[in-house]
Fold this protein.
Amino acid sequence: MLPGRSAAHCDQPVCVDCAGITQDYHCSRCGSETEHYRQNTCARCSLRDDLTVLLRVDDALGSEATATKLLGALCGAQRPESILTWLRKTGVRDLLQRLATGEIPLSHEALDEEPNSLRVEHMRSLLTHHKLLPNRDHYLALFQRWLTSKLGDVDDADIQRPVESFARWHHLRRIRSLSTDGKPTRGPVHSAKQEITETIKFLTWLKLAHGRTVASCVQADVDTWLADGPTTRHAIRTFFVWAVKNRTCTNITIGFRQAKTVPLLTQGQRLAMLKACLTNNIDTLHCRVAATLLLLYAQPVVKIAAMKSTDVILTPDGPRLSLAEGDPAPVPEPFASLLTAHLAARPNMRTGSSSGSEWLFPGYRPGQHIHPNTLMERLREIGIELLGARNASLRALVTEVPAPLVAEMLGYSYQVTQKHAAAAAEPWSRYAKAEMRSTQQVLPGRATGL
């Protein structure tokens, strides 16, 4: 501990002996020199005492008892004070007791039976992080629970039957396949929920307004529905593509919805935001780094939130970013210094876990990255227009670097980057592969004026 201040240099912290402090800061239980939490014991020993009583560890049968496992996991937190604070929240102690005594079996299925709450999900993350529960796809599990509830609310069999077939044989099968392949499922789950919800709305309207089902639906019904409502109604397109393919209905066609406008910042607005993130003290460091990844590399916020610390590759020539399967992208100054500082001081590294997090932006729950919605909200609070900033970044990059190279280095499809290049009147379609490779070093420094 360095509780004192140097007499020669008032701002320099010094140890107890050098400061002449006579108070004993050693824990009476473990002997470590640290701040006392309760009487003469440290926070970790105080936590162990509380949990031993709460979980009835002394009555546990064998070293492999659930109570013993929970004690070891919770006391292993790098910051035990956070666990002590968490134990004061309503329902936490009761949940822990029920897990320790076996009233709630140590399984995902048993936790699924509990009322859905942040308390239960935090407990699940904690147990998964400490290997007391196996890993599972969080979004797939939430979708399965949501689907059961959603279908249960539909009373009409003429509506429920086709929707259930569509949801289970198209969406659920696809999401399970993505999960098995290790691909992210948050986006597919989100779009699946919207498409299922809009399909239920349409079929309900069709039955009430015209007395028809999906089998007797005609093109005029669909056209009327799409013309008289918000653009989210176009989400029924996937259902009808599936229904026609499976002969649930015939002769229904819905084209792709074309966006009327494309949010786009000017280059001046984008560079002003970028300069502020790199030079000003905007919010916290991790928000500045996330905003720069959006403004400089055109990365979607969902992808930024799920980046791992290993995606930052430290080399003698400076850090590089692995954003796709292609070559790592260079990181220009001053962002290189900002990124390195963030990597060394990531937030939420000591809450509920005994080891470092693999995520570049760790979340509040053990073993989880920051939720994309939380990150989106933080970036909006500091004045970042998310979609307009990403489009402007892509537009700037493809005017300086061939679109296929941008796609390879930033993880976009060739169609997306070519579309932006065409809109910027710089298709680069005639550039040879060798010429494209020779321009690699200008990405992203030249495109941003850094």
Confidence is low (pLDDT under 50) at residues 426-442. The chain is about 55% helix and 5% strand.
